[in-house]
Design goal:
about 500 residues, mainly alpha, five-stranded mixed sheet, 23 helices, globular
């Protein structure tokens, strides 16, 4: 085994600290993600979609993403994420918890990469331990854990390993990690383009690595264009365009409009990075919160290590130019890509600083401490109007509180008179638990369903209270549906007559 991938360079005391850090943070990660799923705080979009995808692949069939129908008829018309095929066998063992467990394992894996990279680059064991704390203690990790599963995490957790293998000149595992980034999701190939560009700059004086990352830069670009322009359209219905094409209307309706705006109105394009360009005042401050969070978590070092700022160009662009204000801030999984890059920028700057080792250790400790304290503050309170800390605040009792109706729902779900050949339409937060079948739809889509399963005291999305209650009353009186749980007020199961 490569000596740089072991803990043999650490003292017994340092090893104990490292194992404790991994143990404590793994428990914290589990307490967020697994508890949310157990208490029905995971959702059809996106864990339900992905669980159904795993079910299909584990049964050697394509996934026709019934949850997204009629908008999308095949999973490949939405995203290309072939890494799910590799994950699929685990679905037989862990069921609806599979991807959540994989995500936790990926975060731990990314932490190991950060630890090894930091030790190899800094030549200082203590600095590498503080880098690990900074990595595990950053807000992007907790935002991702609190919102289902996403392959952005898969790709982001490979970045530390790519840099580590580059330092070691260990090309084969570097290429394997790079391939996994591309296979994670097509927009991660865009992330990969800029990762490569940053690494071309970072390793500019190393001819071998400069050439390698330039080639990977070209390959990533070609792969991204192929997937978006050729592969995904093959699976789209006639007349359908790329689902995410209209997400950046602020830049212009077409690429030509964007170029013209960039030439004629550069100040407007620049303003989009900071200003709320909608007419809704409730979105004020969301972008500022993102920028402040980045700066306070090691982002200040991006000014001194601009090659790592280059890596984050597509992440800033995807967030801040987006038409959906929910993506501007630090919520959900849209920030995980910042985490490894900010830590790497911090460690490389501190290690290269013309200061004593003692000063560098204190600097690394300060960055880790500030990052973690700020993260706890942001878990407790955010600017975003969509933020509900119940899903994230692992240190609050309410995060673990199991209401009586949740207990009843769980018991009733075990007794459901259905099997995995039945087509069902289920409420948003019930879908991830019932996705182990070919046909699963998100209520209120019921056209092809044989059963409808509802839990009125939980998430009613995408309906409002009034519409939901009106639909429920209609179902109770319908001549087409039979309520087979007439005495239950926590879970309603309707069977098509």
């Amino acid at each position: 085994m490569n000596k740089d991938l072991t803990f043999q360079f650490y003292t017994a005391k340092q090893k104990a600290i490292i194992y404790s850090i991994f143990g404590v943070f793994t428990l914290v990660f589990c307490s967020i993600s697994l508890v949310n799923h157990y208490l029905f705080r995971t959702y059809a979009y996106d864990l339900g979609i992905y669980n159904n995808m795993l079910y299909s692949y584990s049964h050697f069939s394509w996934n026709y993403t019934p949850i997204q129908q009629p908008a999308i008829a095949n999973a490949f018309a939405d995203h290309l994420e072939p890494v799910f095929i590799l994950f699929a066998p685990l679905y037989w063992i862990f069921g609806s918890y599979t991807l959540l467990l994989i995500q936790i394992a990926l975060l731990v894996f990314g932490g190991v990469g950060i630890l090894h990279f930091s030790r190899l680059y800094s030549k200082n064991n203590t600095i590498s331990i503080f880098a690990l704390v900074q990595f595990f203690g950053m807000w992007g990790v907790y935002s991702a854990l609190a919102f289902d599963f996403h392959n952005n995490v898969t790709a982001a957790m490979l970045v530390p390993w790519i840099l580590l293998f580059a330092l070691q000149k260990n090309i084969k595992p570097l290429l394997a990690c790079w391939a996994m980034v591309l296979l994670s999701k097509e927009n991660m190939a865009l992330y990969g383009i800029f990762i490569c560009l940053g690494l071309v700059i970072h390793f500019y004086n190393d001819r071998q690595l400069r050439k390698l990352f330039f080639i990977l830069f070209l390959v990533s670009g070609a792969y991204f264009v192929f997937v978006v322009k050729i592969f995904i359209p093959l699976f789209q219905d006639p007349g359908m365009t790329y689902l995410y094409k209209g997400m950046y209307k602020a830049l212009g309706e077409t690429p030509k409009d964007f170029v013209l705006n960039l030439i004629n109105r550069p100040e407007y394009i620049f303003s989009l990075l900071f200003e709320n360009y909608s007419n809704e005042q409730i979105y004020n401050g969301i972008k500022s919160e993102l920028h402040f969070s980045v700066l306070l978590s090691g982002g200040v070092f991006l000014f001194f290590k601009p090659q790592f700022l280059v890596m984050l160009i597509p992440i800033f662009a995807q967030k801040l130019f987006n038409s959906d204000a929910a993506r501007w801030g630090i919520n959900y999984h849209y920030s995980i890509e910042f985490v490894p890059v900010l830590v790497i920028a911090s460690i490389t700057f501190i290690s290269d600083w013309n200061k004593t080792e003692k000063f560098k250790v204190r600097a690394a400790a300060c960055v880790a401490l500030v990052t973690f304290i700020y993260t706890i503050k942001k878990i407790d309170r955010r600017v975003s109007i969509w933020y509900d800390k119940t899903n994230t605040a692992f240190f609050l009792q309410r995060h673990y509180k199991q209401e009586n109706h949740i207990k009843i729902i769980r018991n009733e779900m075990k007794k459901l008179p259905i099997n995995n050949t039945d087509a069902i339409s289920a409420q948003d937060n019930l879908v991830p638990h019932l996705a182990n079948r070919k046909y699963i739809y998100m209520y209120p889509y019921t056209d092809l369903a044989e059963y409808i399963i509802l839990a009125p005291k939980t998430s009613l999305y995408p309906l409002k209270d009034s519409a939901y209650n009106s639909n429920l009353d209609t179902l109770k009186q319908s001549v087409y549906w039979q309520n087979i749980t007439p005495t239950n007020q926590e879970v309603f199961v309707f069977k098509r007559k």
